[in-house]
Each structure stands twice: as structure tokens, then as C-alpha cells.
Amino acid sequence: MSSQQLRAIAAREVENFRADRIDLMPEVLRVPAADYVDQARWEKEVRQIFRRMPLALGFTSEFREPGAFRTLEVAGVPVLMVRGDDGAMRSFVNMCSHRGNAVALEECGQTRRFRCGYHAWSFGLRGELVSVFDQENFGPIEKADYGLTPLPTAERAGIVWVTLDPTSQLDIDVFLSGYGDMLESLGFAETHVAGRQVLKGPNWKVAYDGYRDFYHVPILHRPTFGPDLPYQADFYYWGPHVRVTAPKNVQSLADTPVEDWRVEDLTPGVWTIFPNVSIAGGRRGNLQGSGTYMFSQMFPGATPFESVTIQNFLSFDAPDAVDPEALRNFMNFMIEVVEKEDYVTGARVQKGLATGARSHVLFGRNEGGGQHFHRWVDALIETPDAQLDHLFKEGVQERKDAPAAR
Q1: How is the beta sheet containing 68-74 ordered, strand by strand?
Q2: How far is it, in rounded angstroms, from Cα 391 to Cα 378?
Q3: Do 47 and 67 have their domain in common?
Q4: pLDDT tens digit sequence for 265-302
Q5: Distance (Å, whole) CA 274 – CA 55
Q6: Which of 292, 294, 274 is nearest to 337 (CA)?
Q7: Same domain assignment for residues 248 and 118
């Protein structure tokens, strides 16, 4: 199915390339400037989106053996991901059931059990409470009631998905809206994490707007890579998830028989995962000819004016085959592009929006990815838990109450 969709998308892009056109949205979208800076709005986004949606937090390759674990904090929730002794992937709130201390302090590692450093309560790889220090004097408790708090967890397309709300009933495949098949075609299960770095940025939506936008590339990124990339983009949607590509990306396919099209020629562009992931690169490579992805995760910071981006560099090469100098140069280049071009500009954008000088910002007919994103954000923050499945199955594009004409 994914190969058929990829070929259909490529065929459409070939048509647009030959006709020198792109697909445009019906109208310009106006988004209130306050949506980026209002404290109450931001809190609602964190609660209704980041704590309710399955988030792409890790990679299957990080958890190849039982006991492999990783910790991180997302939207104020300390998360512990671990491969169980039964091979299943699980996630928990990284919090001891005794008094709330973290049970794992290292960023990643290998273990047989987790031991709290406060009072030495220990937990197994499935989250069960194994032992209570000096239990005879502590007093009787039902150990089965005091395991680590589990978080809904799934593996799809070589990615580990975690929902921060322990009570969430939103199914991962409903959330993916068929996008999981497309992500499978990118081959993440065949990669490993070659490098990782953290950047600080502006409001999470200010930061994320740029990842679904080719329009700014030849202007803002002129000092780095802008002149080499197309800026006229097309957008393809699976629920809230968007692939951004361009007719010029398939220029080489225009004179190639369809039966000779290779998968690696059908996947260029930027693949985004709602609400906060952008994936660039691919099998064709950008690290001394080897296949590499930059898998960027944007998370809200402590206030509406802050965000944190984790850049994960995924390589198809074996770990011992990655050139460390080439990797270091590539990661430094991404700091130049994202932190010093995108995020410096984002900070200026944020400062301007906070003045209240303009009531709204604009997303043009050529900025379909941004339009789609903001419609989904608006819909989700107003959708109760019981209606989430329906929203993802029906989408927002056809909703008569979608804020398309604000």
C-alpha cells in the first residue's frame, strides 16, 4: 500500500513539475497572534495535545536487548522507556510509588531492575514492585498495587510511541491515520542513533511552523543551503500528519520509466509527525554519501516563550562505519541552520507577536502544511477525550466549523 501511495504522489509531482505549478489551498488562513503567546492557550495545548497524543519518543534500535532503557522529560512528565524481559516495549512515569523520586537517573543504559536512590525500593523491567527496603518495619502493603505507573506504549515503523496520559484510550493506529505505512517505507527499523543534540528555541509552534514551510528556505537559509533547494512545495496529508515535498524533487523521475522508480527516489522532502516531529534526509544520504535522517522532536519548554528541540541523527551505516568527523561536521551544520537561522528568527517573530501590534498572522495558499497544522491544533484543544477517535477518523478538513475563514 505505501509503495502505491508513494508512486501516486510522485506521479502527481511529476505532473506538477511538467506543468510548472504547485497545488494551492483555497484561501489564505488567518491565525490569531495571541495563539502563540497566551499563557492559558499554551497550557491548554500542553494538556490537550502533548499529554493526550501518542508521541514519537524513541527508536526500536535503542532497545534491542531486554533491560535497555532511556529516560527523558516531556511536557513536565518524567518518562522511562524500557524493553522488558519478555521482549515487550513499555513506558512508565519515572517516579517511585513510595514517595515520588525518580527510579532511573541515567539518560540511557542497561539494567535488570530499577532501584530508587531515596529509600531503595526496587522495580522489575515490567514495572512491578520487587522489593521494599526493611519491609518488616515499614508495614504491610500490596506490592501489586504499587508498581510503576504505566504509560500507553506502542512500536510502529521502528519508532517507540508513548502517551503521557496513563488513562488514554486513543489507539495508535487511529492516531496515525494510515501514516504508519508511509513511515515504514522510510526504514527507521534499519537505522541506529549515531548522534543526538539538544537546542533551545522559541514557542513550540513558532519553531514548528518552519518545519512545514519551504517558502522561507531561499531567503532565511541563503547563507547555508537555501539556494540549492526548491521553495515551491506541495503537501500530502494523513490525518494531522504531513509530508512536504516539491515538484523539483522529482525532476529526475520525469524522464524515467515508472517501473524504474526506486523507493529512495520517491521519499525526498520533509515528513512531519503531529504534533512535533520533523524528519529530513533519507536513504540517498547527506553524510558523506551514507543514508542519514535528522529526526527532530520539538517539545514545549517551561513557558509559552520556550521550546526544546532534540535532533536525533539516524544512520543506515553500522555504528563502527560512521565517520565521526563527518557526523560532527553535519551536526554542527544543523546547529548553524536551525539554532542560528531558524530559531534566532523565531525569537524575533515571538517578540513581535507579543507586542499585540497585529491581531493575526497569515498562512498563504502556498503554505498548506501550516494551515493544516493550525486547524488540527484548534480542533484538538476543543475535543473531549470521548470524541478523539471520531475526530481522527473524520479529520478536520471537511468540518464545517473548522476555522478556515478566521
Answers
A1: 108-110, 68-74, 77-83, 89-93, 150-151
A2: 12
A3: no
A4: 899 899 999 999 999 987 655 544 456 899 999 999 99
A5: 8
A6: 294
A7: no
CA gap 120, 101 in Å, rounded? 10
- Cell of residue 113, nine digits: 531492575
Say how far apart CA 45 and CA 370 lie, in whole Å. Answer: 16
pTM of the model as a whole = 0.93
Domain that holds residue 312: 2-53+171-394
At position 251, the amino acid (one-letter code) is Q
| Partner residues linked to 131 by β-bridges | 122
Please, how many CA atoms are within 13 Å of residue 313, restricted to the half-sphere of its CB? 25
Indicate whether 339 and 297 sit together in one domain: yes
Are residues 133 and 22 located together in one domain of the fold?
Answer: no
Spatial separation of the C-alpha atoms in residues 361 and 388, rounded to whole Å: 28
DSSP single-letter state for residue 170: -
Structural domain contains residue 165 = no
Q: Please check whether residue 283 is in contact with residue 264, taking contact to mean a CB–CB distance below 8 angstroms.
A: yes
* 39 and 75 assigned to the same domain: no
Q: What tens digit of pLDDT does each residue of 349-402 get?
A: 999 999 999 999 999 999 999 999 999 999 999 999 999 999 999 998 643 333
Q: How far is the C-alpha of 327 from the C-alpha of 285, rounded, in Å?
A: 12
Q: Is the CB of residue 144 less than 8 Å from the CB of residue 124? A: no
* Residue 401 belongs to a domain: no
Q: Which of 168, 240, 152 has its CA nearest to residue 385?
A: 168
| Among candidate residues 311, 107, 293, 292, the one with its CA nearest the CA of residue 201 | 311
Share of the chain above pLDDT 70, in %: 95
Number of structural domains in the chain: 2
Has residue 406 been placed in a domain? no
Q: State whether 45 and 60 are in the same domain.
A: no
Nearest residue to 204 via CA among 352, 354, 304, 310: 304
Assess if residue 400 is contained within a domain. no
